[in-house]
Design goal:
This protein is mostly helical and 71 residues long. It folds into 2 domains: 25 residues; 37 residues, no CATH class. It has 4 helices and no strands. The radius of gyration is 18 Å and the shape is elongated. The termini are far apart.
Length: 71
């Protein structure tokens, strides 16, 4: 019975930590998605024009390194 409580507390703590991370770093989801090696990552994403996409990529040089070198 004691072990079940510990497991439930650990699961609850992990969920709370995940929610806090997603709250304080909402762009992290997009950064992970953008870093996925897709061939279209150098093209403007939805809601971006060419100039704003270049600015976005400049904020993430580790993800868009090859896009920034070719621009």
């Amino acid at each position: 019975m004691q072990m079940k409580k510990v497991i439930l507390y650990v699961i609850a703590a992990l969920l709370i930590i995940a929610l806090l991370v997603m709250t304080f770093f909402p762009g992290m989801v997009y950064a992970v998605r953008d870093s996925s090696g897709s061939k279209d990552k150098c093209k403007p994403g939805p809601g971006y024009d060419e100039e704003s996409w270049k600015e976005h990529m400049s904020h993430h040089p580790n993800i868009y390194k090859e896009c920034l070198e070719n621009a």
